[in-house]
Amino acid sequence: MERARGGRASFEADRVVMSGGATGANETLMFCLADPGDAFLVPTPYYAAFDRDLRWRTGIRIIPVDCNSSNNFQVTKHALESTYLASQETGIKIKGLILANPSNPLGTTLHREVLETIVNFINDKQIHLVCDEIYAATVFTEPGFISVAEIIQEMDHVNRDLIHIVYSLSKDMGLPGFRVGVVYSYNDAVVSCARRMSSFGLVSSHTQSFLAAMLSDQRFVDNFLIEVSKRVAKRHRMFTEGLKEMGISCLRSNAGLFVLMDLRQMLIDQTFESEMALWRVIIDKVKINVSPGSSFHCSEPGWFRVCFANMDEDTLQTGLERIKDFVLGDRANKVNNNCKCRCNNKKENKKRKSFQKNLKLSFSSMMYEEHARSPKLMSPHSPLLRA
Ligand SMILES: Cc1ncc(COP(=O)(O)O)c(C=O)c1O
């Protein structure tokens, strides 16, 4: 954990409790911190499986704290305070706040000031803070990642009993199948409770012994983390620049294995129904598996998360080609039909620019209408969530 945080925070071995991945760690913390019916605040958009992991067996509730693109979806004090107040007014007991930093699905890290605001907020209210730091080392450009463990080292007034960290080897070390996660709590009672509960999600001794050998090779781990972040950075650049050439922008991101693509201009109208319709077209016609923002409880329609790291470069290029055909297809047809021989480069550039201003017009509107009006429109729940 220390190495994944660049050695800037120290952790005590006694406070570590193993679990079945971050999934198990998050659930264990909910069992330890809340009773059925209690609630946790979660800034949006948030990791879709929180709905399952945090709630299904514990009976806790999730109260979304809406964030928006005007400030890159960073949570504000105002959003926290107003959601907290509104929940209290309806009699809901808020037990804490949980967030993923770096964020899934945003691919961004929390700024120091935002993290301080959050820590001050939970400390004022005396509620818990769970930081899921599963992507701690999967950060590839500035600003770097700051763990809550670093922040509280500098905030003496904060009640540390309220702070809990979740980590896992699934992302940074690329070992999701090993099911190795960690609860790290500054609260003795939580450590003790989580340890007792860990019987329900033990990591096998074979796995532990194998990993102990691997992780004790410090040089290997350091080199591995550096290499991964270089490769993810390269892949991120390839993908976002490829999209940019087509006039598609992404939320500026510096971490994680995905980007949030901004397709708001392609929606017929700014509704989640249109988002779903577009998602259907992308799945059925473009044959690319993207996730619509609504599955992450995004407050604005038109954002789609794309994973760019779980495939080789050729596959990524194929994906980009498909998106390009989809987005530029209509324009190319028009150009070919209308000005077969007269069309010179200058004109084409001009058309491309005007097309980019209005992507909505750029693909077959019939194809879109057909799906938008389809009564069979399905929700994009992943097989994971249907399980
Ligand atoms: C933010 C976040 N938390 C938890 C998990 C689940 O991780 P694990 O495989 O370690 O259970 C994921 C996986 O995508 C994730 O993105």
Walk me through this protein's architecture.
InterPro entries: Aminotransferase_I/II_large, Ethylene_sulfur-biosynth, NHTrfase_class1_PyrdxlP-BS, PyrdxlP-dep_Trfase, PyrdxlP-dep_Trfase_major, PyrdxlP-dep_Trfase_small. It holds the Pfam family Aminotran_1_2. Residues 6-323 form the Aminotransferase class I/classII large domain. With 387 residues, the chain is an alpha/beta fold. It has two domains: 3-215, Aspartate Aminotransferase, domain 2, CATH 3.40.640; 224-386, Alpha-Beta Complex (Aspartate Aminotransferase, domain 1), CATH 3.90.1150.10. The protein is built from 13 helices and eleven strands. Strands 1-7-6-5-4-2-3 form a seven-stranded mixed sheet, with helices on both faces. Helix 1 (21-33) packs across helix 6 (188-197), helix 8 (218-245) packs parallel to helix 10 and helix 9 (272-286) packs across helix 12 (365-372). Mean pLDDT is 87; it is low at 337-345 and 351-387. It binds pyridoxal-5'-phosphate. Pyridoxal-5'-phosphate (PLP) binds at residues 21-23, 47, 100, 104, 132, 134, 168, 170, 176, 181. Residues 21-23, 47, 100, 104, 132, 134, 168, 170, 176, 181 line the site of pyridoxal-5'-phosphate.
